[in-house]
């Protein structure tokens, strides 16, 4: 059943804030898709969120202690992210922004690979073969929307769309926040992906604040309605509900890989912390607003659902301990990490030797030599 978006007063959800299942005329189609998630899958979702949050908090502490140049937290937004991550199939590709730590973790990106980005110790991409198609973070707002669109158009040209083999055909996921929707790149991505029926799904996390600018100021039209003008199928979901994110994400990714063109998913969520560690959210939003969203925490919500499914508290405590151990390991490895040579920035740009880059690498070495080894 297709629900007219304009008729929805609230985003689609399958779990309410207390973790109870929501049933109604609009939800049954999505429940049928979410039923593909076994209890083990749902526990794995919880583990991914809890571990990610623990690492997230530790990374913030490391930045405060001068070990990272910057950190971009994802606290509060883990629910939608984990749902989308589980909705992807192995052959899919994702172009994240800089806050999709759960998605990167589920796809196989090592925590230190993420930390190295924010230490300024990594200058290139991740190996997509080792990270199940997870591309490097982009700190330039919305630029990855064009990369993803171009890549998705290439997937079509390669004939990897619409063959009818759901385990072979490829879909592309691109992620960004509400602030990025104000960028021209994001609009151009919507135009091109629609025109060329690219197998692209755009996942927009409306976390209510583009740094200090609220969503309601950024867009006079609700974001979940805007995509309709570009010819995209659009959904508005509860971004703190992993089950609806999985169901809608799986449906849209499979539709895209089947050759039905692009989809657009807007998650109603909230950034519980700062935009980055350079930001102070207490200067532009209230503690009452934060408290209201804290009651919709995705980790507490899925934990309540798991308990209702018979999962014992002991297992959830074990996940907490695993998360604490992982965060401690990230701290230890960060404190022990060294800095790479400065000229590594020239490596891995091209697959074959490139003379101008070789000359630049030599020039940098000669320049640094003038400092007598103290560069």
Order of helices and strands: HHHEHHHEHEEEHHEHEHHHH
Uncertain parts:
1-6
- End-to-end span in angstroms? 64 Å
Q: Name the structural class.
A: alpha/beta
Mean pLDDT: 94
Task: Classify the helix fraction into a percent range.
Answer: 40-55%
Number of strands: 7
Please specify the SSE layout and strand pairing.
Blueprint: H1 28-34, H2 39-64, H3 78-87, E1 93-95, H4 101-107, H5 111-119, H6 143-157, E2 172-177, H7 184-195, E3 200-206, E4 209-210, E5 213-214, H8 215-218, H9 223-226, E6 233-238, H10 242-257, E7 263-268, H11 287-294, H12 298-308, H13 313-336, H14 355-369
Helix pairs in contact: 1-10, 2-3, 2-4, 2-12, 2-13, 3-4, 3-10, 6-7
Describe what this molecule looks like in 3D:
The chain starts with 27 loop residues before the first helix and ends in a 6-residue tail after the last helix. With 375 residues, it is an alpha/beta fold. Strand 6 (233-238), helix 10 (242-257) and strand 7 (263-268) form a beta-alpha-beta unit. It has helices at residues 28-34, 39-64, 78-87, 101-107, 111-119, 143-157, 184-195, 215-218, 223-226, 242-257, 287-294, 298-308, 313-336, 355-369, and strands at 93-95, 172-177, 200-206, 209-210, 213-214, 233-238, 263-268. A 5-stranded parallel β-sheet has the order 1-2-3-7-6, with helices on both faces. Strands 4-5 form a two-stranded antiparallel sheet. The chain has 14 helices and 7 strands.
């Amino acid at each position: 059943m297709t629900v007219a978006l304009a008729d929805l007063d609230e985003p689609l959800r399958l779990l309410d804030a207390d973790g109870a299942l929501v049933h109604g005329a609009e939800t049954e189609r999505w429940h049928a898709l979410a039923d593909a998630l076994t209890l083990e899958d749902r526990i794995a979702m919880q583990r991914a969120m809890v571990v990610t949050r623990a690492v997230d908090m530790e990374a913030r502490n490391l930045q405060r202690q001068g070990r990272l140049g910057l950190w971009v937290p994802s606290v509060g937004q883990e629910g939608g992210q984990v749902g989308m991550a589980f909705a992807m199939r192995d052959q899919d590709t994702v172009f994240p922004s800089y806050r999709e730590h759960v998605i990167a973790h589920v796809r196989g990106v090592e925590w230190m690979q993420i930390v190295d980005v924010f230490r300024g110790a990594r200058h290139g991409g991740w190996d997509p073969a080792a990270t199940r198609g997870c591309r490097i973070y982009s700190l330039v707002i919305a630029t990855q929307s064009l990369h993803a669109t171009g890549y998705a158009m290439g997937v079509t040209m390669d004939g990897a769309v619409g063959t009818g083999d759901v385990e072979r055909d490829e879909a592309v996921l691109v992620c960004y926040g509400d602030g990025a929707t104000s960028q021209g790149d994001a609009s151009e991505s919507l135009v091109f992906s629609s025109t060329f029926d690219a197998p692209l799904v755009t996942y927009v996390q409306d976390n209510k604040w583009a740094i200090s600018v609220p969503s309601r100021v950024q867009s006079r039209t609700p974001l979940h309605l805007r995509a309709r003008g570009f010819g995209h199928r659009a959904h508005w979901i509860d971004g703190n509900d992993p089950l609806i994110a999985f169901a809608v994400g799986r449906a849209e990714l499979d539709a895209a890989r089947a050759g039905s063109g692009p989809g657009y998913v807007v998650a109603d969520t909230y950034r519980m912390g700062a935009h980055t560690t350079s930001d102070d959210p207490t200067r532009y939003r209230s503690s009452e607003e934060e408290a209201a969203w804290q009651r919709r925490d995705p980790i507490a919500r899925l934990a309540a659902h798991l308990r209702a499914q018979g999962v014992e508290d002991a297992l959830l405590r074990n996940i907490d301990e695993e998360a604490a151990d992982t965060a401690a390991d990230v701290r230890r490895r960060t404190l022990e990490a060294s800095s790479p040579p400065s000229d590594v920035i020239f490596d891995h740009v091209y697959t074959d030797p490139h003379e101008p880059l070789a000359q630049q690498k030599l020039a940098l070495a000669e320049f640094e030599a003038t400092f007598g080894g103290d560069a």
